[in-house]
Amino acid sequence: MQANSVQSVIDWLINGARSATRVDQFVTQTCERLVECGLPLSRVGVFVRTLHPNMLGRNFVWRRDAGVTMGAMPHGDQDEDYFLSSPLAIVFEQGLEVRRRLVDAGAGNVPFFAEMKGAGATDYIALPLLMSDGTIHAMSCITEHADGFSETQLADLRLVMPALMRMIEVWLLRRTAAGLLNNYVGARAGARILAGQIRRGHTETMHAAIWLSDLRGFTPLSDRLPPEAVVEVLNAYFDCQVPAILDHGGEVLKFMGDGLLAVFPVSGKEGDSETVCRQVLEAARECRKSVAAMTYSHQGETLANFKFGLALHIGTALYGNIGGGDRLDFTCIGPAVNLAARIEKMTGRLNRTVLASTEFASHVDAGWTDLGLFSVAGFAAPERVYGLPDDASLMNGSSASPASASSP
């Protein structure tokens, strides 16, 4: 491979790899350009740590004639034997290259090397990706060429690394920013923030189904348990809701203590309101079942019979940046949200898990039970409220705090 061929790849990277607009395209085009320069690559892996509550890192693996697959490494996997015995553990911890000719005797002692050798690989090298903030990530290259990598080919690969590392760092920062915004404000809000909707007062009108819930008996529960246990209970409780909300097209906007605010945007298409409301109701039933089955063990005692209250409404709200000084919140406000909050407060008084406004109930047939007209603080007209006929809270008694299901 000629130096000027490698230089063309370096120039492409330095100029921002502009032909690649997605990370999978960037990995694919980088590998293909290196192959065109003469590097006999059959498999390339890029492994990066990331800031994410569920994932320690991500991996992007390119295979010749198969493209790129993306995966994730959960927190805790770095302590498992399969990772500790892998060459990447050395790269991450020590920042050193790892080279292994897989045709040599003893290459099968490491499970990963044995797997690659069995698939036809002949040579392996892992290189550290040294970022400007001092963190270490990793890239691995495998060939199936009978002679493995030549020293000239490895030298050319190392020559490309500085420019490649800077571009990987750019992609990593982009993904980290998008991921953190997704985790903390939601996917739609995060996309708007990244697109430049960051000034106070930047809002837009949204027509959406509104979900507002909270955990019954949270105050006495907080007094009964240590703070660490309360956090664990809340996380388990929110795990009963968030997946169902996301799976049915909703977006969680915020957690407020034991409260949760989510929206299910409605498009302008005729009939979409009915479709969205059906999805919301399915999510509500899933959550109701999950919360009813939830238990928590603390000091030999098992807490059960958790209950929550959920208000469902559909209407128009303002969606955008609100705040003061340099501190902003991307949230949803307006009379529709206020009405949902007032209805949610009725769930305990009416001994119901799910309550729906007249507007929401009119969009989906659920055999609703008409619970009557109620005065609503801040609203001139009373609101008719509806409940589900099979509401589990009717059978489970009062809305007291979780009881002990079992103890030694």
Automatic annotation (TrEMBL):
<protein>
    <submittedName>
        <fullName>Adenylate/guanylate cyclase domain-containing protein</fullName>
    </submittedName>
</protein>
<dbReference type="Pfam" id="PF00211">
    <property type="entry name" value="Guanylate_cyc"/>
</dbReference>
<dbReference type="InterPro" id="IPR050697">
    <property type="entry name" value="Adenylyl/Guanylyl_Cyclase_3/4"/>
</dbReference>
<feature type="domain" description="Guanylate cyclase">
    <location>
        <begin position="209"/>
        <end position="344"/>
    </location>
</feature>
<dbReference type="GO" id="GO:0004016">
    <property type="term" value="F:adenylate cyclase activity"/>
</dbReference>
<dbReference type="InterPro" id="IPR001054">
    <property type="entry name" value="A/G_cyclase"/>
</dbReference>
<dbReference type="GO" id="GO:0006171">
    <property type="term" value="P:cAMP biosynthetic process"/>
</dbReference>
<dbReference type="GO" id="GO:0035556">
    <property type="term" value="P:intracellular signal transduction"/>
</dbReference>
<dbReference type="InterPro" id="IPR029787">
    <property type="entry name" value="Nucleotide_cyclase"/>
</dbReference>
